[in-house]
Amino acid sequence: MTTQLYRRLLRIVGLMVAAFSAISLCLIWASPGPEGLKNIDPLALKNTTVAILLIFGVAAPLIAAFIPTQKWLPLKAAVFAVAGFANAAALSPVIVVPFQGTTSAVAVVGALGLAVLTMVAFMDSVQKKSPRSKF
After folding, report:
1. What is the DSSP code (8-state) at residue 71?
2. Are 29 and 50 in contact (CB under 8 A)?
3. Which of the four pLDDT bands, split at 50, 70 and 90, describes residue 133?
4. SS3 14
5. 109 alpha-carbon distance from chain centroid
6. Is the dihedral of CA 120, 1, 71, 79 positive or negative?
7. pLDDT at 84 over 90
């Protein structure tokens, strides 16, 4: 059952994670730099956050969503977990802008949920290859 639904969910939720990450990225990029930072350059913090979201929140989930479904499942799980954590880092009170908090939160939930679902699909594929189990 998991493998039947996994193909559709990978594409739908993977594209959703990339889209919401892209919206968050654009909102952070368009906002002014954070204020009140003494030890960190505000512009460098903003640009670093934008770069991390671009690489780990948008590009990596898009690539993982279009790789053939049953290939490299542990790598896909890691990609979506990192995408979730990159979006969670963008929820920092120093960086967050009004609507971006919502889009990043949706991307975090979708990415971490897809990471868990990918691991379940991986365990299901391992079970099909070697059905020697006590359960």
Report:
1. S
2. yes
3. low
4. helix
5. 9
6. negative
7. yes
62, 40, 60, 43: which is closest to 52 by C-alpha? 60
Q: Which residues of 89-111 are buried (b: 16+ CB within 10 A; e: fewer)?
A: bbeeeebbbeebbebbbbbbebb
Q: Are 87 and 108 in contact (CB under 8 A)?
A: yes
Stated pTM of the model: 0.86
Q: Which two tokens stand for residue 101?
A: 């908090």
Looking up tokens 């990471």 gives 115
Work out the pLDDT band at 2, boundaries 50, 70, 90. Answer: low
Q: Which pLDDT does position 18 carry in this prediction? A: 94
Here the tokens at position 64 are: 């993982």
Pair 107, 17: CB distance under 8 Å: yes
Tokens of 9: 């969910």
- What's the one-letter identity of residue 75? L
Helix 2-30 / helix 100-129 crossing angle, nearest 10 deg: 150
33-37, 42-46, 81-85: least confident range:
33-37
Tell me if 76 sits within 8 A of 111, measured CB to CB. no
